[in-house]
Amino acid sequence: MKEVMREKTERGIHDVYLITIAGKGLFALLEVVLGAIFLFTNSITDLIIQLIDNEVIEDPTDFFSGHLQPLLHPTPEAQTFAGFYLLGHGVVKVFLILGLLRNKMWAYPASISVFSLFIMYQLFRYFFRTHSVWLLVITVLDVIAILLIYHEYRQALLKEDVVA
Question: Contact, 24 vs 143, CB < 8 A?
Fold first, then answer.
C-alpha cells in the first residue's frame, strides 16, 4: 500500500515537474521572440508608449500609468540591453530545458546552476534597482523549478543505480 502511494506521489511530482519545465520553455521562447523584437524593431517600445500615453490622457493619477511612466521614453541603450538580455536568457533556458525534457544527465546540474545564477541576479535587481514584485514572483517560481529539477535528478540517479 505504501509503495502504491509513493508511486502516485512520484507520478504527481513528475507531472508538476513536466508542467513547470514546459511552462519555463514556453516563457523562454517568448523571451527569445521579444528579445529579437527589441533588438530589431521599435514596435514594442512604440506600443508601450502608445498604451501609456492613452492611460495618462484618460487619468494622469491612474496606478497603471503612474507606475509605467518611466517606460514612456526608453533610451536606445535600455532597449538594446533588454533585447540582448531577453534573447540570451531565453536561448540559454531553451537549451537547458530541451536537455531536461530529453532526460540528459548534464542538464540537471547545469539547469540548477544557471537558474541559481538567474535568481541571484534577480534578487540583486530587486534589492538594488527595481523593487519590482514581479522579480520576486519570478524568483519564487525559479526556486520551485530548481527544487523540482533536483528531485527529478535524484530520481534519475536512483534509476541509473538500479540499472547499473
Answer: no
Contact at 8 Å (CB) between 149 and 111? yes
* Cα 156 → chain centroid: 24
What's the domain count of the chain? 1
The per-residue pLDDT for 16 is 94
**pLDDT digits over 112-143, tens only?**
999 999 999 989 988 988 888 888 888 999 99
Distance of CA 29 to the CA centre of its chain: 10
* Domain that includes residue 150, residue range: 2-163
Per-residue model confidence as pLDDT tens digits over 79-119: 788 888 889 999 999 999 999 999 999 999 999 999 999 99
